[in-house]
Protein backbone atom coordinates (compact mmCIF):
# COMPACT_ATOMS: atom_id res chain seq x y z
CA UNK A 1 0.00 0.00 0.00
CA UNK A 2 2.90 2.35 0.71
CA UNK A 3 4.15 1.74 -2.85
CA UNK A 4 0.74 2.69 -4.25
CA UNK A 5 0.66 5.93 -2.26
CA UNK A 6 4.16 6.80 -3.50
CA UNK A 7 3.09 6.11 -7.10
CA UNK A 8 0.16 8.51 -6.72
CA UNK A 9 2.51 11.28 -5.53
CA UNK A 10 4.91 10.61 -8.41
CA UNK A 11 2.09 10.75 -10.96
CA UNK A 12 0.78 14.04 -9.56
CA UNK A 13 4.25 15.61 -9.60
CA UNK A 14 4.98 14.49 -13.16
CA UNK A 15 1.60 15.71 -14.41
CA UNK A 16 2.30 19.13 -12.86
CA UNK A 17 5.61 19.36 -14.70
CA UNK A 18 5.36 21.68 -17.64
CA UNK A 19 7.38 19.51 -20.01
CA UNK A 20 5.46 16.31 -19.32
CA UNK A 21 3.62 15.01 -22.33
CA UNK A 22 0.08 13.63 -21.89
CA UNK A 23 1.42 10.21 -22.79
CA UNK A 24 3.58 10.19 -19.64
CA UNK A 25 0.60 10.59 -17.31
CA UNK A 26 -1.38 8.02 -19.27
CA UNK A 27 1.40 5.44 -19.01
CA UNK A 28 1.99 6.07 -15.31
CA UNK A 29 -1.75 5.93 -14.60
CA UNK A 30 -1.90 2.54 -16.34
CA UNK A 31 1.00 1.31 -14.18
CA UNK A 32 -0.85 2.42 -11.04
CA UNK A 33 -4.04 0.66 -12.13
CA UNK A 34 -2.09 -2.55 -12.74
CA UNK A 35 -0.49 -2.36 -9.27
CA UNK A 36 -3.88 -1.79 -7.62
CA UNK A 37 -5.34 -4.69 -9.60
CA UNK A 38 -2.54 -6.98 -8.47
CA UNK A 39 -3.12 -5.95 -4.84
CA UNK A 40 -6.85 -6.61 -5.05
CA UNK A 41 -6.40 -9.89 -6.93
CA UNK A 42 -4.16 -11.23 -4.18
CA UNK A 43 -7.08 -11.05 -1.73
CA UNK A 44 -9.73 -12.58 -4.06
CA UNK A 45 -10.80 -16.23 -3.99
CA UNK A 46 -12.83 -18.05 -6.64
CA UNK A 47 -13.79 -21.52 -7.85
CA UNK A 48 -10.70 -23.64 -8.50
CA UNK A 49 -8.50 -21.98 -5.86
CA UNK A 50 -6.91 -24.20 -3.19
CA UNK A 51 -4.88 -23.63 -0.04
CA UNK A 52 -5.03 -22.38 3.55
CA UNK A 53 -6.79 -19.11 2.64
CA UNK A 54 -9.66 -21.12 1.15
CA UNK A 55 -9.83 -23.38 4.21
CA UNK A 56 -9.94 -20.36 6.51
CA UNK A 57 -12.79 -18.87 4.50
CA UNK A 58 -14.63 -22.18 4.78
CA UNK A 59 -14.04 -22.25 8.54
CA UNK A 60 -15.39 -18.70 8.80
CA UNK A 61 -18.48 -19.61 6.76
CA UNK A 62 -19.03 -22.53 9.15
CA UNK A 63 -18.87 -20.14 12.10
CA UNK A 64 -21.77 -18.09 10.73
CA UNK A 65 -23.89 -21.17 10.05
CA UNK A 66 -23.05 -22.54 6.60
CA UNK A 67 -22.82 -26.32 6.34
CA UNK A 68 -19.76 -27.19 4.25
CA UNK A 69 -16.48 -29.05 4.58
CA UNK A 70 -13.31 -27.06 5.30
CA UNK A 71 -11.03 -28.94 2.92
CA UNK A 72 -9.16 -25.98 1.38
CA UNK A 73 -10.71 -26.46 -2.07
CA UNK A 74 -12.93 -23.72 -3.52
CA UNK A 75 -15.45 -25.96 -5.31
CA UNK A 76 -19.22 -25.94 -5.81
CA UNK A 77 -20.28 -26.12 -2.13
CA UNK A 78 -18.02 -23.17 -1.19
CA UNK A 79 -19.15 -21.17 -4.22
CA UNK A 80 -22.79 -21.92 -3.32
CA UNK A 81 -22.24 -20.75 0.29
CA UNK A 82 -20.62 -17.52 -0.94
CA UNK A 83 -23.57 -16.94 -3.31
CA UNK A 84 -26.05 -17.43 -0.44
CA UNK A 85 -24.08 -14.95 1.67
CA UNK A 86 -24.11 -12.48 -1.21
CA UNK A 87 -27.88 -12.87 -1.63
CA UNK A 88 -28.48 -12.38 2.11
CA UNK A 89 -26.36 -9.23 2.21
CA UNK A 90 -27.39 -7.68 -1.11
CA UNK A 91 -23.88 -8.00 -2.52
CA UNK A 92 -23.30 -8.81 -6.19
CA UNK A 93 -24.07 -12.53 -6.62
CA UNK A 94 -21.20 -14.14 -8.55
CA UNK A 95 -19.80 -16.74 -6.11
CA UNK A 96 -16.46 -14.91 -6.02
CA UNK A 97 -15.06 -13.96 -2.62
CA UNK A 98 -13.76 -10.43 -3.15
CA UNK A 99 -13.63 -7.15 -1.24
CA UNK A 100 -17.39 -6.46 -1.22
CA UNK A 101 -18.25 -9.97 -0.03
CA UNK A 102 -15.48 -9.80 2.59
CA UNK A 103 -17.00 -6.56 3.95
CA UNK A 104 -20.41 -8.21 4.23
CA UNK A 105 -18.95 -11.28 5.91
CA UNK A 106 -17.18 -8.97 8.36
CA UNK A 107 -20.48 -7.47 9.49
CA UNK A 108 -21.98 -10.91 10.13
CA UNK A 109 -18.84 -12.19 11.85
CA UNK A 110 -18.36 -9.23 14.20
CA UNK A 111 -21.71 -9.91 15.87
CA UNK A 112 -20.38 -13.30 17.05
CA UNK A 113 -16.97 -12.14 18.23
CA UNK A 114 -15.30 -9.94 20.79
CA UNK A 115 -11.95 -8.40 19.90
CA UNK A 116 -8.71 -7.34 21.53
CA UNK A 117 -6.09 -4.86 20.31
CA UNK A 118 -2.66 -6.17 19.29
CA UNK A 119 0.38 -4.08 18.30
CA UNK A 120 2.38 -5.66 15.47
CA UNK A 121 6.06 -6.31 16.16
CA UNK A 122 8.97 -7.36 13.95
CA UNK A 123 8.55 -10.86 12.58
CA UNK A 124 4.76 -10.92 12.84
CA UNK A 125 3.07 -12.47 9.81
CA UNK A 126 -0.54 -13.45 9.25
CA UNK A 127 0.28 -17.14 9.65
CA UNK A 128 2.34 -16.80 12.86
CA UNK A 129 -0.13 -14.34 14.36
CA UNK A 130 -3.08 -16.61 13.57
CA UNK A 131 -1.32 -19.58 15.16
CA UNK A 132 -0.22 -17.66 18.27
CA UNK A 133 -3.64 -16.09 18.81
CA UNK A 134 -5.53 -19.29 17.99
CA UNK A 135 -7.62 -17.71 15.25
CA UNK A 136 -7.85 -18.01 11.45
CA UNK A 137 -6.00 -15.63 9.15
CA UNK A 138 -9.26 -14.91 7.35
CA UNK A 139 -10.89 -13.53 10.53
CA UNK A 140 -7.94 -11.18 11.08
CA UNK A 141 -8.15 -10.01 7.45
CA UNK A 142 -11.92 -9.49 7.62
CA UNK A 143 -12.06 -7.65 10.95
CA UNK A 144 -9.26 -5.28 10.01
CA UNK A 145 -10.31 -4.83 6.38
CA UNK A 146 -6.78 -5.70 5.25
CA UNK A 147 -6.17 -5.04 1.56
CA UNK A 148 -2.74 -6.73 1.67
CA UNK A 149 -1.18 -9.62 3.56
CA UNK A 150 1.82 -7.40 4.43
CA UNK A 151 1.77 -6.30 8.09
CA UNK A 152 3.51 -3.09 9.16
CA UNK A 153 5.43 -3.06 12.45
CA UNK A 154 3.91 -0.78 15.09
CA UNK A 155 0.38 -0.79 13.65
CA UNK A 156 -2.43 -1.83 15.99
CA UNK A 157 -4.94 -4.37 14.71
CA UNK A 158 -7.97 -6.09 16.20
CA UNK A 159 -7.68 -9.79 17.03
CA UNK A 160 -11.00 -11.66 17.17
CA UNK A 161 -11.76 -13.50 20.39
CA UNK A 162 -14.67 -15.91 20.23
CA UNK A 163 -17.03 -15.53 23.17
CA UNK A 164 -17.06 -19.29 23.55
CA UNK A 165 -13.39 -19.05 24.59
CA UNK A 166 -14.53 -17.72 27.98
CA UNK A 167 -15.73 -21.22 28.83
CA UNK A 168 -12.21 -22.60 28.48
CA UNK A 169 -10.16 -23.05 31.63
CA UNK A 170 -6.54 -21.98 31.91
CA UNK A 171 -3.51 -24.01 32.93
CA UNK A 172 -0.79 -22.93 35.34
CA UNK A 173 0.98 -20.90 32.65
CA UNK A 174 -2.19 -19.32 31.30
CA UNK A 175 -2.52 -21.89 28.51
CA UNK A 176 -5.94 -23.06 27.35
CA UNK A 177 -7.14 -26.52 28.29
CA UNK A 178 -9.43 -28.04 25.67
CA UNK A 179 -12.17 -30.51 26.61
CA UNK A 180 -10.78 -33.85 27.77
CA UNK A 181 -7.19 -32.84 27.01
CA UNK A 182 -6.65 -31.47 30.51
CA UNK A 183 -3.23 -33.14 30.73
CA UNK A 184 -1.94 -31.10 27.76
CA UNK A 185 -0.05 -27.86 28.33
CA UNK A 186 0.91 -25.48 25.55
CA UNK A 187 4.63 -24.83 25.39
CA UNK A 188 6.43 -22.43 23.05
CA UNK A 189 7.14 -25.14 20.48
CA UNK A 190 5.82 -24.49 16.97
CA UNK A 191 6.19 -26.33 13.70
CA UNK A 192 6.09 -24.91 10.16
CA UNK A 193 4.70 -27.45 7.69
CA UNK A 194 7.17 -28.53 5.00
CA UNK A 195 6.20 -29.50 1.42
CA UNK A 196 4.98 -33.12 1.31
CA UNK A 197 4.65 -33.34 5.10
CA UNK A 198 1.52 -34.90 6.61
CA UNK A 199 -0.09 -34.59 10.02
CA UNK A 200 0.99 -38.18 10.69
CA UNK A 201 4.61 -37.23 9.99
CA UNK A 202 4.41 -34.32 12.46
CA UNK A 203 2.67 -36.51 15.03
CA UNK A 204 5.45 -39.09 14.82
CA UNK A 205 8.22 -36.47 14.89
CA UNK A 206 7.03 -34.88 18.14
CA UNK A 207 5.55 -38.06 19.65
CA UNK A 208 2.19 -36.33 20.06
CA UNK A 209 -1.05 -37.92 18.89
CA UNK A 210 -2.88 -36.40 15.92
CA UNK A 211 -6.02 -35.61 17.94
CA UNK A 212 -4.03 -33.43 20.36
CA UNK A 213 -2.44 -31.46 17.50
CA UNK A 214 -5.84 -31.05 15.82
CA UNK A 215 -7.49 -29.91 19.04
CA UNK A 216 -5.00 -27.21 20.04
CA UNK A 217 -4.97 -25.83 16.49
CA UNK A 218 -8.78 -25.85 16.17
CA UNK A 219 -8.54 -28.03 13.06
CA UNK A 220 -11.60 -29.51 11.37
CA UNK A 221 -9.90 -32.40 9.62
CA UNK A 222 -6.32 -33.41 8.88
CA UNK A 223 -5.61 -31.14 5.91
CA UNK A 224 -2.39 -29.10 6.27
CA UNK A 225 -0.42 -26.93 3.83
CA UNK A 226 3.25 -25.97 3.30
CA UNK A 227 4.08 -22.84 5.26
CA UNK A 228 1.28 -23.35 7.79
CA UNK A 229 2.38 -22.86 11.42
CA UNK A 230 1.08 -25.43 13.91
CA UNK A 231 1.30 -25.32 17.68
CA UNK A 232 2.60 -28.58 19.14
CA UNK A 233 1.12 -29.54 22.52
CA UNK A 234 3.47 -30.89 25.16
CA UNK A 235 2.83 -33.18 28.09
CA UNK A 236 3.41 -31.56 31.48
CA UNK A 237 6.40 -33.87 32.03
CA UNK A 238 8.13 -32.36 28.96
CA UNK A 239 9.03 -28.96 30.36
CA UNK A 240 12.76 -29.33 29.78
CA UNK A 241 13.94 -26.94 27.03
CA UNK A 242 15.00 -28.46 23.71
CA UNK A 243 18.60 -28.17 22.43
CA UNK A 244 17.41 -25.36 20.18
CA UNK A 245 15.74 -23.43 23.01
CA UNK A 246 18.88 -23.68 25.17
CA UNK A 247 20.95 -21.64 22.67
CA UNK A 248 21.12 -17.90 23.29
CA UNK A 249 20.78 -16.55 19.75
CA UNK A 250 21.38 -12.96 18.65
CA UNK A 251 20.59 -11.23 15.36
CA UNK A 252 23.49 -11.70 12.89
CA UNK A 253 22.95 -8.10 11.78
CA UNK A 254 20.31 -5.42 12.22
CA UNK A 255 17.97 -4.80 9.32
CA UNK A 256 14.47 -5.15 7.93
CA UNK A 257 13.18 -8.63 7.07
CA UNK A 258 12.46 -8.51 3.34
CA UNK A 259 11.35 -12.13 2.97
CA UNK A 260 10.10 -14.30 5.81
CA UNK A 261 10.28 -18.01 6.48
CA UNK A 262 7.85 -20.38 4.75
CA UNK A 263 5.75 -20.49 1.60
CA UNK A 264 6.28 -17.67 -0.90
CA UNK A 265 6.53 -16.92 -4.62
CA UNK A 266 10.05 -17.53 -5.93
CA UNK A 267 11.47 -14.06 -6.77
CA UNK A 268 12.82 -15.03 -10.21
CA UNK A 269 10.30 -17.54 -11.58
CA UNK A 270 7.21 -16.44 -9.62
CA UNK A 271 6.46 -20.11 -8.86
CA UNK A 272 5.43 -21.38 -5.41
CA UNK A 273 8.48 -21.92 -3.23
CA UNK A 274 9.40 -22.69 0.40
CA UNK A 275 11.84 -20.18 1.88
CA UNK A 276 14.05 -22.03 4.35
CA UNK A 277 15.24 -18.94 6.21
CA UNK A 278 14.76 -15.19 6.42
CA UNK A 279 16.27 -12.44 4.25
CA UNK A 280 17.56 -9.40 6.14
CA UNK A 281 18.17 -6.18 4.22
CA UNK A 282 21.77 -4.97 4.43
CA UNK A 283 23.99 -2.75 2.31
CA UNK A 284 27.02 -4.29 0.61
CA UNK A 285 29.84 -4.96 3.08
CA UNK A 286 27.82 -4.87 6.32
CA UNK A 287 29.43 -6.90 9.12
CA UNK A 288 27.73 -10.25 9.77
CA UNK A 289 28.20 -11.77 13.22
CA UNK A 290 27.71 -15.28 14.58
CA UNK A 291 24.23 -15.71 16.06
CA UNK A 292 25.66 -18.00 18.75
CA UNK A 293 28.96 -19.59 19.75
CA UNK A 294 30.07 -22.69 17.84
CA UNK A 295 32.51 -24.22 15.35
CA UNK A 296 32.60 -23.32 11.64
CA UNK A 297 31.42 -26.40 9.74
CA UNK A 298 31.65 -24.81 6.26
CA UNK A 299 33.02 -21.61 4.77
CA UNK A 300 33.09 -21.18 1.01
CA UNK A 301 31.01 -21.11 -2.15
CA UNK A 302 27.68 -22.94 -2.04
CA UNK A 303 25.47 -23.39 -5.11
CA UNK A 304 22.65 -20.85 -5.07
CA UNK A 305 23.78 -19.40 -1.73
CA UNK A 306 27.02 -17.80 -2.96
CA UNK A 307 29.71 -17.27 -0.31
CA UNK A 308 28.33 -19.05 2.74
CA UNK A 309 29.23 -19.77 6.37
CA UNK A 310 27.68 -22.65 8.34
CA UNK A 311 28.27 -22.81 12.10
CA UNK A 312 27.61 -25.91 14.19
CA UNK A 313 26.40 -25.02 17.70
CA UNK A 314 25.84 -28.54 19.03
CA UNK A 315 25.24 -31.97 17.53
CA UNK A 316 21.70 -30.95 16.50
CA UNK A 317 21.73 -27.22 15.69
CA UNK A 318 23.49 -25.23 12.94
CA UNK A 319 23.09 -21.72 11.50
CA UNK A 320 23.68 -20.66 7.89
CA UNK A 321 24.71 -17.21 6.56
CA UNK A 322 24.50 -16.77 2.77
CA UNK A 323 25.10 -14.34 -0.14
CA UNK A 324 28.18 -12.83 1.55
CA UNK A 325 30.70 -10.70 -0.33
CA UNK A 326 33.68 -11.86 1.75
CA UNK A 327 34.33 -14.52 4.42
CA UNK A 328 36.52 -13.99 7.49
CA UNK A 329 36.52 -17.53 8.92
CA UNK A 330 37.56 -21.03 7.88
CA UNK A 331 36.15 -24.50 8.57
CA UNK A 332 37.19 -25.82 11.99
CA UNK A 333 37.52 -22.42 13.68
CA UNK A 334 35.86 -21.88 17.05
CA UNK A 335 33.61 -18.84 16.97
CA UNK A 336 32.19 -16.81 19.85
CA UNK A 337 28.70 -15.32 19.93
CA UNK A 338 28.69 -11.95 18.16
CA UNK A 339 32.07 -12.45 16.44
CA UNK A 340 32.24 -11.01 12.91
CA UNK A 341 32.38 -13.90 10.43
CA UNK A 342 31.71 -12.23 7.04
CA UNK A 343 30.51 -9.20 5.13
CA UNK A 344 27.07 -9.13 3.51
CA UNK A 345 26.82 -9.13 -0.26
CA UNK A 346 24.95 -10.20 -3.37
CA UNK A 347 26.63 -13.48 -4.38
CA UNK A 348 24.82 -16.58 -5.62
CA UNK A 349 21.17 -16.44 -6.68
CA UNK A 350 20.23 -13.09 -5.18
CA UNK A 351 18.04 -10.09 -6.02
CA UNK A 352 20.31 -7.58 -4.26
CA UNK A 353 22.62 -7.13 -1.23
CA UNK A 354 21.19 -8.86 1.84
CA UNK A 355 21.83 -11.68 4.31
CA UNK A 356 19.98 -14.99 4.02
CA UNK A 357 19.94 -16.53 7.51
CA UNK A 358 18.84 -20.00 8.55
CA UNK A 359 18.53 -21.92 11.82
CA UNK A 360 18.59 -25.68 11.21
CA UNK A 361 17.67 -28.41 13.68
CA UNK A 362 18.66 -31.98 12.76
CA UNK A 363 18.62 -31.06 9.08
CA UNK A 364 15.21 -29.34 9.24
CA UNK A 365 15.06 -25.52 8.75
CA UNK A 366 13.29 -23.68 11.57
CA UNK A 367 11.72 -20.22 11.58
CA UNK A 368 14.58 -18.02 12.90
CA UNK A 369 12.21 -15.30 14.13
CA UNK A 370 10.85 -17.70 16.75
CA UNK A 371 14.30 -18.03 18.37
CA UNK A 372 15.82 -14.58 17.92
CA UNK A 373 15.37 -11.98 20.69
TrEMBL record:
<feature type="domain" description="LysM">
    <location>
        <begin position="189"/>
        <end position="232"/>
    </location>
</feature>
<dbReference type="Pfam" id="PF01471">
    <property type="entry name" value="PG_binding_1"/>
</dbReference>
<dbReference type="InterPro" id="IPR016047">
    <property type="entry name" value="M23ase_b-sheet_dom"/>
</dbReference>
<dbReference type="InterPro" id="IPR018392">
    <property type="entry name" value="LysM"/>
</dbReference>
<dbReference type="InterPro" id="IPR036779">
    <property type="entry name" value="LysM_dom_sf"/>
</dbReference>
<dbReference type="InterPro" id="IPR002477">
    <property type="entry name" value="Peptidoglycan-bd-like"/>
</dbReference>
<dbReference type="InterPro" id="IPR036365">
    <property type="entry name" value="PGBD-like_sf"/>
</dbReference>
<dbReference type="InterPro" id="IPR011055">
    <property type="entry name" value="Dup_hybrid_motif"/>
</dbReference>
<protein>
    <submittedName>
        <fullName>Murein DD-endopeptidase MepM and murein hydrolase activator NlpD, contain LysM domain</fullName>
    </submittedName>
</protein>
<dbReference type="GO" id="GO:0004222">
    <property type="term" value="F:metalloendopeptidase activity"/>
</dbReference>
<keyword id="KW-0378">Hydrolase</keyword>
<feature type="domain" description="LysM">
    <location>
        <begin position="116"/>
        <end position="159"/>
    </location>
</feature>
<dbReference type="Pfam" id="PF01551">
    <property type="entry name" value="Peptidase_M23"/>
</dbReference>
<dbReference type="Pfam" id="PF01476">
    <property type="entry name" value="LysM"/>
</dbReference>
<dbReference type="InterPro" id="IPR036366">
    <property type="entry name" value="PGBDSf"/>
</dbReference>
<dbReference type="InterPro" id="IPR050570">
    <property type="entry name" value="Cell_wall_metabolism_enzyme"/>
</dbReference>
Amino acid sequence: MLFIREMKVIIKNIIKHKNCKPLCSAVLSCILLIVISWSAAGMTLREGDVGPRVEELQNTLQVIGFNLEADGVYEESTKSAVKKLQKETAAGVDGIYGEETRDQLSKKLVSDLDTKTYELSRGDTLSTLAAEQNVSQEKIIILNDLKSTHLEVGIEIEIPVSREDSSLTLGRGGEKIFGDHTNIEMNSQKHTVRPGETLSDISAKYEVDIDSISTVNNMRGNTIYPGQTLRIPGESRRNEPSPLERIDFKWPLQGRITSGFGARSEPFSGESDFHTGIDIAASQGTEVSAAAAGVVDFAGWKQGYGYTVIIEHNDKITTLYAHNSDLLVRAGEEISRGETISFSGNTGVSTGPHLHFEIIKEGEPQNPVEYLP
